[in-house]
């Protein structure tokens, strides 16, 4: 299958809710980038996080094997530093091969869960 997507993506809205109603991984509030690599070559991904009141963090580096998907929780990023919950941020995701990026948030601060999902902004 031919590679599809773009090499650079932006998610202008980011926020990891600081609380959750549950403790299981499925119910922990989180922010995620779902990355699809439909091509025949592995994707080397670099993520930079931008804040409103401090210098950017990153790059965070992950790989997505060929013809696979990765649901990457921003909550799980640790190197070079964790992203602080309850803080507004934005992200730029760069890949060495075309990929597709979707942004998702689960907000479980209340028993009535909220799920947000949208395609990221792709540019080359």
* Bulk shape: globular
Largest sheet: 8 strands, antiparallel
Poorly predicted runs of 5 or more residues = none
Count of structural domains: 1
SS-based class: mainly beta
Features:
0% helix, Hypothetical Protein Tm1070, Chain: A, globular, 8 strands, 55% strand, 8-stranded antiparallel sheet, 124 residues, mainly beta
Explain how this protein is built:
Helices cover 0% and strands 55% of the residues. With 124 residues, it is an all-beta fold. It has one domain: TM1070-like (Hypothetical Protein Tm1070, Chain: A, Sandwich). Strand 3 and strand 4 form a beta hairpin. It is globular, with a radius of gyration of 14 Å. The model has no long low-confidence stretch (mean pLDDT 86).
Give a nutshell description of this structure.
This protein is mostly beta strands and 124 residues long. The protein has strands spanning 6-14, 30-37, 43-51, 57-64, 68-73, 89-107, 114-119, 121-123.
Describe the secondary structure blueprint for this structure.
Blueprint: E1 6-14, E2 30-37, E3 43-51, E4 57-64, E5 68-73, E6 89-107, E7 114-119, E8 121-123
Antiparallel strand pairs: 1-6, 1-8, 2-5, 2-6, 3-4, 3-6, 6-7
């Amino acid at each position: 299958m031919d590679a599809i997507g773009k090499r650079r993506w932006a998610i202008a809205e980011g926020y990891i809710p600081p609380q959750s109603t549950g403790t299981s991984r499925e119910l922990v509030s989180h922010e995620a980038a779902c990355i699809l690599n439909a091509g025949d070559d592995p994707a080397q991904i670099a993520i930079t996080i931008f804040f409103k009141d401090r210098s950017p963090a990153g790059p965070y580096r992950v790989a997505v094997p060929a013809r696979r998907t990765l649901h990457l929780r921003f909550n799980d990023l640790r190197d070079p530093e964790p992203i602080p919950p309850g803080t507004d941020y934005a992200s730029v995701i760069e890949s060495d091969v075309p990929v597709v990026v979707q942004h998702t948030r689960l907000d479980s601060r209340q028993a009535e869960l909220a799920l947000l999902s949208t395609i990221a902004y792709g540019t080359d």
